[in-house]
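Open question from group meeting: does this chain pack into something compact, or does most of it stay loose? Before anyone orders reagents, we agreed to write out a predicted structure and look at it together. Recording both the input and the output here so the notebook holds the full record.
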Amino acid sequence: MTTRDTNEDQLDNLPHVEWNSTASGASGNLIFPSPLSPLKCQIAGHPFNGVKHTIGMLVCRKTGNVLKPATKVILGEREIAFYENLKNSRNPTIVQLKKLVPCYYGTTELWVFNKRTKFLKLRNITDGMAEPCVMDIKIGRRTWDPLATPEKKATEELKYAESKRAYGFCITGFQVYCHSTGRLKKFDRDYGKKLDAKGVVEALKTFLNITPERPACRHLLFELLSCLGRIMLFFRMQRKYRFYSSSLLVAYDAKKLREHYCADSKDSSELANSKIETVSFSTTSTSLNTNTSEQSAPTVPVSSAGINRDWTEAQKNRPTLKRSTSFNTEPMPIMGEQISDQSGSYNPDLKMDRLCQSCPSQFSLPQTNNVKRNVTQDNHGVPTNKEECSWVRVNMIDFTHVFPADDNSGLDLNYLEGIENLITLINTLYKQAHKRDSNQNCSATIAQ
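Structure tokens returned:
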């Protein structure tokens, strides 16, 4: 059962979103009930449009939560059911998944454009951020679910084709506050659809405020890798679901970024002496290697077999493919340990916190003095350590196309390919920034 606000039991009492087409000439204007307003940092999906009667996301100024419309009844109810299952389940896999998604507070209903519309109430990932930079990254080479029609499959294959072919993910839009000017720039889905392999790297650099004159902020990239690493580790264990057309919502505060650029310069000498190892990942159809020179773009080579064969063929061939140790169906070894309880049974819940704390070591990143790893959580599984989570956050979102796995023996390779490629790209940017700082420190030492 979903929940509703108690003052919305009667249709006449539902708050109204109204379209006044005569208020400002032909353009008109939208009127929202207090304390609701359109979510300014919405970067994917349809925004509010009075002429086309499209419904976007809202933010409640009183609670800071966002309201996501369930405009398509079947898909909307499917996503609500997914969140309700997470809310009530004690299954170890679902308990861990709950920590990676926005906190869910039930549903409410509004009367929008003379139509009763249900909204999901979710925690706002940008709450408290002064200059929120937000990127929506759709994960997976395949974005159509098992119920898709042939027409839907064909349409999805054409969307973001170049970036999905190269990396197994695509950027559907983002906004960023420029580090030097403070100006807000927005890049919509039309921009994302045109990105090829090189364009994806440039888009990530733009979003992360990386320019030829200003290298990446190592602290920002470190935190992003830690957040993404938690999700990757979850998908290296979970065999319960298949996620299609699901996204990662990545957010950071550009105002805090300026402060951490100063912190980076202070501890650059210490980081210059840290040892950086080359890290490699492998998935079913990709061969990833971050041993990239500083001058070259961090592109990820993809085998021709992974490009040319369709998903169905890939699934048929999956049992015969060679996999890395961490992808075996046996318990995953991390830091020389097995994820099992005292009886020897596979237990994904037992050491998840320990895995998450050790996640940066997966990428051979140097620890910094001002990065804290001990994070407490509230009753919803949300981190409460302000230093850790206040300015860099990553959530899994969009669950209208999540389906139970056919069996519990296989991993979600479609999702894993995308998130590992994303991690590899960001890790390469991190190493480039570290190498540049190390070279600068060496030059300064020689000059002295």
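Observations to bring back to the group:
Residues 9 and 109 are 10 Å apart (CA to CA).
Residues 1-9, 274-388 have pLDDT under 50 and may be disordered.
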